[in-house]
Write a structure and sequence with these properties.
With 354 residues, this protein is α+β, with helices and mostly antiparallel strands. Helices cover 23% and strands 31% of the residues. The chain has two domains: 17-164, Lipocalin, CATH 2.40.128; 187-353, Leucine Aminopeptidase, subunit E, domain 1, CATH 3.40.220. The chain is elongated.
Amino acid sequence: MLTATLAAGVAVAFVAVDVAMFGHDPLDPATQIPPSRPAVAGVWALDRAGRVEVGPAVTPGSRPRLVLHDDNTFSARDLPDWWNPDALVIPDKTGYRRAWRLVSGSGRWAVEKRPGGWFVALRFSTPPRLSAELRLYGQNPPHRLGVILGDPDEGRSLTFERTGPAPPPRRPFARDVSRPFDARGVRAFVTLTSVGGVTMIRYLQGDATQPQAKGNRIVAHVCNDLGGWGKGFVLAVSKRWPGPEAAYRAWHKGRASNDFGLGAVQTVQVEPYLWVANMVAQRGMKTGSKGPPIRYDALRTCLKTVAAQAKEKGASVHMPRIGCGLAGGRWEEVEPIVLDELTSQGVDVTVYDF
């Protein structure tokens, strides 16, 4: 009897901690049926308290989120590594501050029953190739996902809130071995497909200034906001066509009376069916306190404009791995933006690795 009483007391204590931290009771497996998949699948983001907890690790360029797809696959971007027992702990005015590492990856998810409640189990199939879990809170939708950090008495936690439905799952990379070379001898070595096998991004080994497609084409690349044009992919552009550089320099020179600035796009026709899009998505040319020069929000704005122009012209879009050279960006950040703003709008995209 004493053991049962103590156990009940501990359970009540932990429920009290859960309610205090998350504002919801945990789902009790003894009295609740499993939460429905539509109520759990979706886009999950750190709530305000979670962003405060992670603190400096969440930079303006990072967008921590967890996407649970309807087919029980998931994709994670800039997810704080709450599962890491070896994370550094730094003293601060509140007691301590965890040195977070942000992790991106994908894998499979499932709702699983534990003695303490219902949990969303994540099994990464990409590095770091591990398993982690988040507890489900809220007896009825909308649920929340959370994890208590360290000693419950210290009141540290991460909380995720559902911000929208999940987009359709995308298939992983698949190597194209049926036609390793095209008619011009350019090797197509990776194809990214979506549901139904529709090609979304074509990856080619080749030169983006020689776009491999028929019809109208746009070559898109990233420029800085200082008027500098002398390194990186722009050299290949100028070697082939002088027009884009001359137009960019004039655009920057007259910036007091035009739209030059982060997020702006200048489209220059260089051949009868070919345009070059100068996209201003790089702040300066050096890494500073705010990270590398790439500005992902500006890049997204630029690609929205390019998508509108491509649809108007009936054009395909061609690019190097934009933002990942001198701008210092990461392709795992850029690729989802390309997918969101171009391919999801029905624009064919080819990415070139020289």
